[in-house]
Amino acid sequence: MKEKNITIDLTTGLQARPAAQFVQLANRYTSDVFIEKDNKRINAKSIMGLMSLAVGQGEEIKLIVDGSDEEVVLKELTEFVKQS
Hints:
By secondary structure, the chain is α+β, with helices and mostly antiparallel strands. It has one domain: Histidine-containing Protein, Chain: A (2-Layer Sandwich). Helix content is about 35%, strand content about 25%. The protein is built from 3 helices and 4 strands, in the order E-H-E-E-H-E-H. It has helices spanning about 15-25, 45-55, 70-80; strands at about 1-5, 30-35, 40-45, 60-65. A hairpin with a 2-residue loop joins strand 2 and strand 3. The termini are far apart.
């Protein structure tokens, strides 16, 4: 299992279209992917879960990945949220 704290650089945060793209990217992999924010953990492969966090630009999340491809997943999702 890998964990990483990440600050969201996307200008819109993880709302609407970026949230959908993030979920689609997470679903390409077999690893379990979770996001924690404010002591709430959601499945990052669920659009409803991700939208419920209301992650805005400049906020910090913890990305938790567990599985055979966790290194690649962590790298790809980190790069995605670091776009500005």
